[in-house]
Amino acid sequence: MFHGYLPMILDGLRVTLSVAVVSLAVACVFGLAGASAKLSHSPVLRGLAGLYTTVIRALPDLLLMLIVFYGGQILLNRVATAQGWGYMDVNAFAAGTITLGFVFGAYLTETFRGAILAIPRGQIEAGHAMGLSRGQVMRDIVIPQMVRHAIPGFTNNWLVMLKATALVSIIGLDDMVHRASLASAATREPFTFYALIGAIYLAVTTVSILVLGALNRRMSRGIRSEARA
Amino acid sequence: MIDWTIVREMLPAFWHGLQMTLLLLVTSAVAGLLLSVPLSVARSARSPWARWPVFGFTFVIRGTPLLVQLFILYYGLPQFGVIRNSTLWPLLRDPWFCAWAAFTLNTTAYTTEIFAGAIRTTPAGEIEAARAMGLTRAQVFRDVFWPGAWRRALPQYGNEIIQLMHATALASTVTIVEILRVGRDVYTNYLKIPESFGMAAVFYLGLTLVLAGLFRLLERHFLRHLDPRASATPMPEPVKASAHA
Which of A79, A118, B152, B184 is found 20 to 30 A from A85 (Cα to Cα)? Predict the structure, then answer.
C-alpha cells in the first residue's frame, strides 16, 4: 500500500517528534524567563517581555521561522568571516527548534504568568509569615500550584506547536512532511502519503490529549470541580 | 542599513500581496462564520446523530497541521482519476480554491468549537424565561439564545480571526502570491532581510493591529452592558439616609 516507504515515513516521525520535544524545552525556558520578567519589579524587564509577547504573537510562525533561518545564516557567516572560520551553514534542526521555541515561548509566557497570578497572594505571604525562605515558598507553595494551573494552557500550546513542526519542512528539515513529499514524487501517489502523515499527526495529538488530560486530573485531585480552572 | 530604493521599488508588489492576503482572509472568514453557526448548534444538540459527526470533523481538522490539509487538497486529490474527470476539476486544480477551502475548513472547525463552548454556558434560566414569556422557538433562538452566545464567544472569535490571518501565509507554499510570498521573492532577488521579510513583518503587524482594533470596537459595541456603571452614564448622587445622621 505504501510501496515500502512506511519505514522512511516513520523515521521522519522520529525527526518530527525530536523537533517538537526540543522546541518545547526551549519554549519552556523562554516562557519561564518571560513570565518572571513580566512579573518583576523592573520596568525595563516588563517592557522587554511585553514587546516580546506582542510582536511574536502579531506575526505568522512561518515568517518568523524564515527570519531566524535566513537571518541566522547571515549573522553566523558575518561572525565566521570575522573569525576566519570560512563559510558556515545554519543547521536546519537548530534553526527550526530555536525559532519554534522562541515563538511558543511567547505563548507560554502568558500561560505561566496566568498560572502564577492564579495563586492567591495570601498563601505566599502566609508562607513568609511562617518563616519559610524564598526558595521554600517557591518549591513548596508556588511551583506545585503553578504547574496545576498551567496544564490546560500548556496542553493547548503543545498541540499547536506539534502541528507547527510541519513548517520546518519549508526551511529544509528532513521531517515527516518532507519525507511524504519525497515518497509522493517517487510513487505519484501524493494523497496516500499526505493522508498517512495526517493520520499519524492525529494519532500523536490524540495521545497527547489523553496523557495531558490524565495528568491534569491527577494534579487537580482534591480540588473541588467548581474551583478547577 | 536599509536600502530604501528596494523598499520603494517593491512597495507595489507588497501592496498586491496585501490585497491577496485580505481576499483570502475575508472570503474564508465569511464562509467559516456561515458554516460554524449551524455546526455549533448541531455540536451542542442532545441527539448523538447531530453531535458526533460534527465533533469528528472538528477533531480531525484541529488535530492535523493546516499545511498537511492544504497539501492533501492541492497535491493529493488529483491522484484520483474520478476527481480529474469531475466537473469540479477546474476548481480543484486551482491553488487559490484549494487554499481557500483549506482555510475555510480550518476556521470552521475552530469557530464551531468556540461557538459550541459559548452555547454550553448559556444559563438555562434565560431560555426557560423566554419560553415562559410565550416566545416561539425561533424567537428564542434569534432574540435570546444567539445574541448571548455571540457575546460570550466574541473575544475568542477575535483571536481566531487573527490566527486565520496568520495562517493565510501558508498559501505561499502553493504558488499564491500573498504578503509572505512577496517577501520570499524579494529575499531571493536581493538577499536582504529587512527589505524582504522585514517589510512583510510590517504588513502583518499592521494587519494584526487593525484586526485587534476592529474587534475591540465590536466588543465595545456588543459588550457595553458589562462596563462598570460609572463609566457609562453618571449615576445621580445617592440620597444619604438621614436616620444615622
Answer: B184
Q: Shortest Cα distance from A205 to chain B (angstroms)? A: 6
Q: How far apart are CA A144 and CA A29, in angstroms?
A: 18
Is the CB of A166 less than 8 angstroms away from the CB of B68? yes
Domain of B188? 4-228
**Closest-CA distance of chain A to residue B243, Å:** 39
Q: For domain A17-173, say whether CATH 3.10.20.310 is its number.
A: no
For residue B74, give the nearest of B103, B97, B106, B107 by alpha carbon: B97
C-alpha distance from B163 to closest chain A C-alpha (Å): 8
According to the model, what pLDDT value does residue A74 have?
85
Residue A69: pLDDT over 90: no
Say whether residue B60 is in contact with chain A using an 8 A CB cutoff: yes
Q: What is the CATH number of the domain that holds B81?
A: 1.10.3720.10
Q: How many CB atoms lie within 10 A of CB A62?
A: 22
Rounded mean pLDDT, A217-221: 87
Per the structure, how many domains does chain B have?
Answer: 1
Q: What is the ipTM of this complex?
A: 0.88
Interface test with B, best of A76, A155, A194, A204 (most B CBs within 10 A): A194
